[in-house]
Amino acid sequence: MIHGGDILTYKNMYDGDIIDFSSNINPLGPPECFNEAVNHAVREINRYPDIKYRELKKEIGKYLGCSEGQVIVGNGAVEIIDNISSLFNRVIVSIPCFMEYIIRPKVIGKDVVMVDSLRDFSIDERGLIEKIGAGDLILLGNPNNPTGKRIKRDVLISIQREAERRGAYILLDEAFYEFCPPDYDSIEIFRGCSNVFVLRAATKLFALPGIRLGYACVPEEFAVAYNRRALPWSVNAFADAAGRAVLKDKDYIKRTKEYIAEQREYMLKELGSMDFIKTYNTVSNFILIKLLVGDEDSLFNYMIKQGILIRKASSFAGLDKSYIRLAIKSTPNNQYLIKCLTQFRGHISID
Amino acid sequence: MIHGGDILTYKNMYDGDIIDFSSNINPLGPPECFNEAVNHAVREINRYPDIKYRELKKEIGKYLGCSEGQVIVGNGAVEIIDNISSLFNRVIVSIPCFMEYIIRPKVIGKDVVMVDSLRDFSIDERGLIEKIGAGDLILLGNPNNPTGKRIKRDVLISIQREAERRGAYILLDEAFYEFCPPDYDSIEIFRGCSNVFVLRAATKLFALPGIRLGYACVPEEFAVAYNRRALPWSVNAFADAAGRAVLKDKDYIKRTKEYIAEQREYMLKELGSMDFIKTYNTVSNFILIKLLVGDEDSLFNYMIKQGILIRKASSFAGLDKSYIRLAIKSTPNNQYLIKCLTQFRGHISID
């Protein structure tokens, strides 16, 4: 499977440091408190992490606004997706979506039902509701990757109610939640609902993809079932220590929101003015574009020669070779990307 | 499930630092090169780990004496056990054994066949061979936890041949291999066999349980199937960096072998001379004992008051409350343990 962030595969194609626009990581870099957390973990590294992750779950509960008993943790969000999927009959997704929503359930022998949201990349509420059966898991990105769209509050509530009525469950993957402008908090609106799981992650928000820490707020009874399914010690000591530290750094999260909002506006404006691409609006820290001439390969090959790694998007179910996903990065990197895209435009002709 | 190393659960029972005889970690502590590896990981933490773990697999291959393509890696040995089990029909184990051999396959819906080796804790070769069916996975600890025994070379070869004849596979969990006196190398004797997987881990040997790094040598075609099953980025950046560094530290491994050999001899002699316990011979860094009076609870409660955490062994299938497992630790800690056991003896009467 193709993923963003695979710089190593392409490093011989450019003589210098490649700027990675293919993975959606906070451009501010890890918060300062991370270093102290690492030192703490190193001092205790010859012990097993707490097999129950008591302190970590307490901090996550505080951060999410739920009880410690509602928190589950995993080796990155993808492990939680895998484990939760294993506990249900079928998995219903809305494509295009993060491909692991489709791959992981299939790997563990589950049927995956794909509902098409390709027309305008908004969820096909009626089409999705039609498919829901008892014991199904509806797995939705919110905001969705690669489209960068949040699900409308009303649509989400309506899907949740119908799922509840039919005995189905919803897993909202909100790994990019903190990058979005404030709209609603799924944990808050579904408080008390027994069929909703809200997944978040430290990976993207704190620029720490290497530590592997995912967490979710779920009903307490479900947390018990989840913990029976999960591997022991699946969260490593560095992720445990980092999670306890970084979630307290409100200032970092605030600065992130402001920085991304500003850069998103800049990028959407610049990309929106280019005549050879169609830019889809986003509330997240990445942008889906459609090439109106050429395909992902021609742009990819041009950009890698400029030291820029972009994400070809044809590997997302439902998208073809005309789509590209771009991360929102630091001001100078974003400006350089726009400059390179403008140069690329100079080399092509549009009939 | 009960595991060793759960100090947090008992920390209120002793006013001071508890000495953990319940988890089997190298008493030398992590090698010095680990700190440099951590610094390296921190510098690159805002990137995803290499999704293919190319450098890590190269180092592990060199260390194990196999090709890079034969190496698989996981978030601790237990993730590899889980993933491999998922690819076979049934799992055959010899009890007593590490309980995750039984729990993990059951959690993922596999039948587990338990062959009894309780008489003298040597594998019941004929009993085991009788059970083997096509597509089964025979999962054996070598040395075995909690007994500390290696499988005899001839027995192992005979099981492997019979498994091959019947279309079955063997997973040898050799997480404690490096603590044992040299006898044979499973990777060497089964080179070219298509039905043997040899699992090792950095956790115990390098005193790094918190980093979560397991690895195995498997046939190349099986590695391809395994990688399809495994989660992406399951090895975190610290484990990736540490694995690349510590496996080169031959001197540390040599010192470990010598230290453990010396301390094992001391412990076996001291424990062997105590009249209220039966001590089972071990080649590993832990020792199974049977209490001839009282039970695990009375000894546990006495020892925790002395600041010593021991491993009750009744949670191992086949063992009752008369069994205890003790780790081999540093000289002063081992001496303190022996002293406390001697004191305990003073409080009990044997008819």
Q: What do you see in this structure?
A:
- Two copies of one chain form a homodimer.
- Chain A has 351 residues and is of the alpha/beta class.
- Chain A is 41% helix and 16% strand.
- Chain A has helices at 7-10, 33-43, 54-64, 77-86, 100-107, 125-131, 153-166, 186-189, 202-205, 220-229, 237-246, 250-272, 296-305, 331-347, and strands spanning 19-20, 71-74, 90-95, 111-116, 137-141, 169-173, 196-201, 214-217, 277-279, 286-291, 308-309, 311-312, 323-327.
- Chain A has a seven-stranded mixed beta sheet, sandwiched between helices. A four-stranded antiparallel beta sheet of chain A has the order 9-10-13-12, with helices on one face.
- In chain A, strand 5, helix 7 (153-166) and strand 6 form a beta-alpha-beta unit.
- In chain A, helix 2 packs antiparallel against helix 11, helix 3 (54-64) packs parallel to helix 11 (237-246) and helix 4 crosses helix 5 (100-107).
- The longest helix of chain A has 23 residues, at 250-272.
- The mean pLDDT of chain A is 95.
- At the A-B interface, helix 2, helix 4, helix 5 and helix 11 of A face helix 2, helix 4, helix 5 and helix 11 of B.
